[in-house]
């Protein structure tokens, strides 16, 4: 009887894992070509007219809307924010690839990275991997998490080009996401590693 319960439990666990993987894969995953589902907006393009361009010391670039300001963050990165009343209402960052992250493991690497930085309540909402990007291929995650300051939603993409790989992150507090999402998505779509 005990062996039967263990077998049923293992089968249930395997089915649950398969369903979770299928849910993530069906929520915008693509192994070739263009992004779809939750990432259908990801159509890499040039910067819109009137937008500024941020550049990392390593040469990665992304465009950002007028009214946003460059802010100091980690060395080697480029960061800009929409500031209102001293609060960051939206944030963009480009960072060179720094560890062992790959296009294949990005959907697990990024959440683990965020948890390692102390984020809580992390929830992966969608993931896609190995989709066409302006200058190469990309894997992206949309997730939400809580920090000591606020509850955020982010888009984080690892983009591998011919000579380099870099990460672009677009974030806003969850309650402001609907208002800022179009600009954040457009900025991600302009990214070049």
Q: Tell me the number of helical segments per DSSP (H or I, 4 or more residues long).
A: 3
- Uncertain runs are 1-32
Order of helices and strands: HEEEEEHEEEEH
Structural class label: alpha+beta
Tell me the CATH superfamily. Answer: Mog1/PsbP, alpha/beta/alpha sandwich
Largest sheet: spatial strand order: 3-4-5-9-8-7-6
Q: What characteristic shape results from the CA principal axes?
A: globular
The number of distinct structural domains comes to 1
Secondary-structure arrangement, i.e. CATH architecture:
3-Layer(aba) Sandwich
Task: Please state the average pLDDT score.
Answer: 84
User: How big a fraction of the residues is strand?
Assistant: 35-45%
List the helices and strands and how they pair.
Layout: H1 2-26, E1 52-55, E2 61-64, E3 69-71, E4 78-84, E5 87-96, H2 106-116, E6 120-133, E7 136-146, E8 151-161, E9 165-173, H3 177-189
Antiparallel strand pairs: 1-2, 3-4, 4-5, 5-9, 6-7, 7-8, 8-9
């Amino acid at each position: 009887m005990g062996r039967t319960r263990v077998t049923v439990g293992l089968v249930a666990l395997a089915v649950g894992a398969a369903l979770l993987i299928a849910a993530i894969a069906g929520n915008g995953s693509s192994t070739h070509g263009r992004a779809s589902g939750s990432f259908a907006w990801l159509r890499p393009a040039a910067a819109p007219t009137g937008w500024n361009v941020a550049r990392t010391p390593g040469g990665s670039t992304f465009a950002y809307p007028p009214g946003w300001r460059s802010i100091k963050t980690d060395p080697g990165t480029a960061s800009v924010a929409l500031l209102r009343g001293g609060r960051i209402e939206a944030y963009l960052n480009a960072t060179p690839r720094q560890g062992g992250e790959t296009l294949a493991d990005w959907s697990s690497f990024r959440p683990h990275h965020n948890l390692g930085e102390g984020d809580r309540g992390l929830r992966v909402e969608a993931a896609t991997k190995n989709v066409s990007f302006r200058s190469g291929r990309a894997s992206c995650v949309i997730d939400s998490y809580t920090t000591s300051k606020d509850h955020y939603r982010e888009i984080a993409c690892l983009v591998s080009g011919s000579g380099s790989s870099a990460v672009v992150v677009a974030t806003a507090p969850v309650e402001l996401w609907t208002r800022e999402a179009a600009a954040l998505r457009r900025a991600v779509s302009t990214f070049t590693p």
